[in-house]
Amino acid sequence: MQLSGWGRYPRAEGRLSAPRDTAALAALLAEGPAIARGMGRAYGDSAIGRHAISTRHLNRMIAFDATTGQLVAEAGVTLGEIIDAFLPRGWFLSVTPGTKFVSLGGAIAADVHGKNHHVDGSFGGFVDWIEVMGPDGAVNRCSATQNPDLFHWTLGGMGLTGVILRAAIRLRPVESGWIRQTTIPARNLDEALDAFAQTMDATYSMAWIDCIASGDRLGRSIVMEGEHAGRGELPADRRARPFDTPDRRAARVPFDFPGLTLNPLSVRLFNEAYWQKGLRQPTTTLTGWDPFFYPLDTVHEWNRIYGRRGFMQFQCVVPLESHGEGLRAILGAIARTGAASFLAVLKRFGPQQGRLSFPMEGYTLALDFPVNRRSLSLMPELDRITADHGGRFYLAKDSRLSAQTLRQTDPRWDAFAQWREDNGLAGQFVSAQSERLAL
Amino acid sequence: MSKTILILGATSDMARACAHRYAREGYDLQLAARDAAAIEADAQDLRLRHGVTATALAFDVLDTDGFAGFIAGLAPLPDVVLCAVGFMGDQTESQRNPQAATVVLRSNFEGPALALGMLAERFEARGSGTVIGISSVAGDRGRASNYVYGAAKAGFTAFLSGLRNRLARGPVRVITVKPGFVATKMTEGLPLNPRLTAQPDEVAEAIWRAQDKGRDVIYVRRVWRLIMAIIRALPEWQFKKTTL
Hints:
The structure holds two protein chains of two kinds.
Chain A: E1 2-4, E2 11-13, E3 15-17, H1 22-30, E4 35-37, E5 51-54, E6 61-65, E7 70-74, H2 79-86, E8 91-92, H3 104-109, H4 117-120, E9 127-133, E10 139-142, H5 148-154, E11 163-170, E12 172-173, E13 178-186, H6 189-198, E14 204-209, E15 221-228, E16 251-252, H7 264-280, E17 284-288, H8 289-293, E18 299-300, E19 311-319, H9 323-337, E20 344-349, E21 362-370, H10 373-388, E22 392-393, H11 403-409, H12 412-422, H13 432-436
Parallel strand pairs in A: 3-5, 4-5, 16-18
Antiparallel strand pairs in A: 1-2, 6-7, 7-11, 8-12, 9-10, 9-11, 13-15, 13-17, 14-15, 14-20, 19-21, 19-22, 20-21
Chain B: E1 4-8, H1 13-24, E2 28-33, H2 40-50, E3 54-58, H3 67-72, E4 80-83, H4 91-96, H5 98-126, E5 130-134, H6 147-167, E6 173-178, E7 181-182, E8 197-198, H7 200-213, E9 217-219, H8 223-233, H9 236-239
Parallel strand pairs in B: 1-2, 1-4, 2-3, 4-5, 5-6, 6-9, 7-8
Helix pairs in contact in B: 1-7, 5-6
């Protein structure tokens, strides 16, 4: 069948299996090269290939320790399910990406980060141990002290070290399901970077950046920061049920939008409206956890607005030393081509933590582009600017990087590929992405 | 006092989805399957996610002699029983081999009907309860491709209909579920039309709503009511020539 990631580009013919237990999984691995697939939320080709093995039936929660907040669960459990089960008891994810529709296994494989990276680091920092099935069907538990190499290469290893079966993660205690959100409009990139510099001690921070604005408005952003609200901060009528936040009505994109829906004009109008809304917003508000962390999750299948050809996401990080110049060059290149990208995200990162973590101290920029000739010619230029400024790329978003650019910007993958070779994993765990990037 | 649901055939995908749906409403769970050890992981998952009580019970649908003991051992007697037991078998094998056909007939008709009938008696004596049987559209008209299974399901549908008729004036309710195609273990690898194929979660939602709204017979996706009405309406001389 046709397999693709969330961006629906690229698509490739492949086999998709969904074993119901570990014995069935081991039997599938014995048949030849394969790659694990969680919720299919990696944007590009990370979880597609000749044989993708879905973990959706391996999705049980196994144990929870209410004194330490440690949850043990199978890889197919989603982050949203973890919130559903544990927020009412006063626990939230320690790190969450911008969608709750990812699996635990996927979050580990991509070592995802969230709006609190500058304070708490990435997902891997809250993983106590992982159980990984190797090509022979044997299950190995690994942690910082037990099989440490397997542990450190599995966090961020894009599923290429084996099939993640189970893991123990630590949740964080919270007093409510509410976030105290502060909104800071920034008229250009300098103001946005200033705002980030001043919010380094905020638990959560990120910005929506308008990639169409140019000239002295280049980098115009709405910077948002947030804190988990304490019970005492809630209005009196909310205090009795601090974990109840309003249900959000989910909509669904019912069909593939025609390719022309997202054009420079519609995106310009959208961005302008978004900016105006940001200007009008009160500086500080209480908002539920769902709209704060997962603004796009209410629009199911939002990937269809990019039409049948799909879209690509570009996400890079530029190190602190050169971030101003680097970001300006990238934004300038995008504004020049007028390539439509709405809802781009800018965020300050703290230092790299895991061995393969994508983040490094600096700024990350994430943008969507519809798949068309203009985007496809712009992306290599963005790659080059990122490389020139010492930046690197996030493989969970990638669908088109060249192996050469990856190695040039991120030599860690050389050591990773060598380790895979030495441990007999190279020919066994294979995705379209690992083949393209020669991992 | 929280309510309890007994699920017979708890390892099936539809049963698992129903267990989660009812647990979300705060129901305690009695999960019964041939191999009780195989559902312990599910029971633990349900306890953790929903904070309900979940027990794994051994139940063999072919062991009709054991039903009385099984029901006597239920503590408490559940408020709702859902039978999700189903075994498709292989039609060609069922045509040739009476033993294979017997297993299909007993698994889909005799066992489920007798077990639900006995529980309905207990519910009637207590003065409350809901009986839910997952039957099949295959029981609406016998077709060449699966008529042994279909005949068993037809029997089960008729049994539920009669039970409902008999209990209609009392407090006990009987619901017949005919899910149509569902993406489960049983149908994996079959080329099913996605528009006609429900996910197990959809079935669970439909069953919960049927109970909540007091429905008697449900098809999960509405289109199935229409499809089956047409199939039932075809005159036999025409129907016998079809390949459905």
